[in-house]
Amino acid sequence: MWSGPRNISTAMMRSWENRPDTIVVDEPFYSYYLSTTGIVHPMNDEVIASQPTDWREVVDQLMAPVPEKTSILYLKLMTHHFLESMERDWLSHLSHVFLIRNPRDMVVSLDEKTPKPKLLDTGFPQQLQIYNWLKQNTDQICPVIDSKDLLMNPEAMLKKLCGFLQIEFDARMLEWPEGRRDSDGVWAPHWYGNVEKSTHFAPYKPKTGEVRPDLVELLDECLPFYDELWKQRLTID
Known about the structure:
The chain has 237 residues and is of the alpha/beta class. It contains 12 helices and 5 strands. Strands 2-3-1-4-5 form a 5-stranded parallel sheet, sandwiched between helices. The two termini are 22 Å apart.
């Protein structure tokens, strides 16, 4: 599940983890991203210490056999963590879904957490690049989910997605116990406060607040990437 920041990616991870046949992995390339770029995030040292800093080691772990009684390995992958230095051939062994959010809502939300965000911080260019690479180098048709569409009708959209992936829908994806998970990354105390209180997908609400004048250009930069992916999104019949 490829997502940019400030989306419903953690709630989506909760949804899938509530299936008894699924295990999840939370942002496995976060440490690699921070250690390689030198970008400093909250809890920076803890994040780097919690995961391998070599992307190859991470891939080896992800491609290992899944535990018994598990049929689905769900990877929450952040598109801005996927750097140019990473090889891509291993991606052909996975099924891919792309989770997008309207750039206006995303930029306003990102501005609350990231000082002076730039285009690459949004993950939009990387998301379209990964989508196009898969389209050109594999025989997969990768579904795109707009978070607004899912929040407007979670059950219908999850059924649609599961059908597309040839996975049986499980109603337990619609609700989950509140609280933290052992599977959450060590960064959860800083980022997951709202999700830890949640028990289901919250109804869609447009993001309040204005786009600051100095971020209007960033919003304009994001729109072409979003629009291209939005054209490919799954819709409810």
